[in-house]
TrEMBL record:
It comes from the Bacteria. Keywords: Metal-binding, Zinc, Zinc-finger. Transmembrane segments: none annotated. This is RanBP2-type domain-containing protein. One of its GO terms (molecular function) is zinc ion binding.
Length: 105
């Protein structure tokens, strides 16, 4: 068996983002390794949410992983507040579920 070449695919701004992307990748059958978290834990004083976490994938899955990352970066998953009624909506919706107001208005 040939050793896999691991490459740093993406540098996440925090642990939460790293795990979100890791989940997406694993759903697509891509193996992922994270680095940075252990260091943060060892340092003890740094809160987990401000530590950069690197995602690593193998050479032969890199292209597939890049496609997933690309999709992730294009999609805005953040919740948004309706400008009309103030309702909170999930990022994938373009219209307010409460009053049908367009997200951008
Ligand atoms: Zn609304």
């Amino acid at each position: 068996m040939v050793d896999q070449q691991w490459q740093c695919l993406y540098c996440a701004g925090n642990s939460l983002e790293a795990h979100s992307i890791k989940g997406l990748l694993e759903n697509m059958g891509v193996d992922v390794r994270l680095t940075g978290e252990a260091l943060a834990a060892a340092a003890g004083e740094l809160p987990m949410n401000v530590v950069e976490v690197q995602l690593w994938v193998t050479d032969n899955q890199r292209q597939q992983a890049l496609t997933v990352i690309d999709g992730y970066l294009r999609t805005d998953y953040r919740d948004w507040y309706c400008g009309h009624c103030g309702e909170v909506n999930q990022g994938q919706f373009e219209l307010c579920w409460q009053c049908q107001q367009d997200r951008d208005e």
